[in-house]
Design brief:
Blueprint lengths: L7 H18 L12 H15 L5 H8 L3 H13 L3 E5 L7 E5 L5 H7 L4 H8 L4 H18 L4
Antiparallel strand pairs: 1-2
């Protein structure tokens, strides 16, 4: 029996479409390249995880994201070099290194976090129906509120 609504395949395809719109909304990477490389997307995933889980370890990030340890370590190193995160020795276990967001936000981090989605959504939906843009934006706000910290 068919149940109206989104099925697993449609949800997966919607997720991919939203990722593409999200990429379009991000400011271009430094160096003038037009698109973010796959490694840039991994850095964004790791940065998001660190923001959601302060004072975490690389192993914990690997566990939560299912990314390979080498990629997480590389992403943390890039974030540290950019001034987005800092690492500190765990005071309770001096063998562990904790990763946290930097106390001061770098200019690039502020630029990426401040990127709006209106232009990218308008490009994806078309400029002919501002009400549709408003409805989709409201739906995305609801999804983000309910799902952001559950993935």
């Amino acid at each position: 029996m068919y149940t109206p609504g989104v099925n697993g395949v449609e949800l997966f395809l919607l997720g991919r479409a939203l990722m593409k719109i999200g990429e379009e909304a991000l400011p271009p990477p430094p160096g003038g390249t037009a698109r973010h490389a796959g490694s840039d997307r991994l850095v964004l995933i790791v940065a998001s995880d660190i923001a959601d889980h302060p004072d975490t370890t690389v192993s914990e990030i690997v566990s939560r994201t299912a990314l390979p340890q080498s990629q997480v370590s590389s992403a943390v190193a890039r974030l540290k070099e950019a001034g987005s995160v800092q690492t500190v020795t765990d005071p309770s276990d001096r063998r562990r290194v904790l990763v946290r967001q930097a106390a001061e936000e770098s200019e690039r981090v502020a630029q990426v976090r401040g990127a709006g989605i209106d232009d990218a959504l308008t490009a994806a939906l078309g400029p002919d129906d501002p009400d549709r843009l408003k409805q989709v934006t409201q739906a995305l706000d609801v999804l983000a509120r309910h799902l952001r910290h559950r993935a």
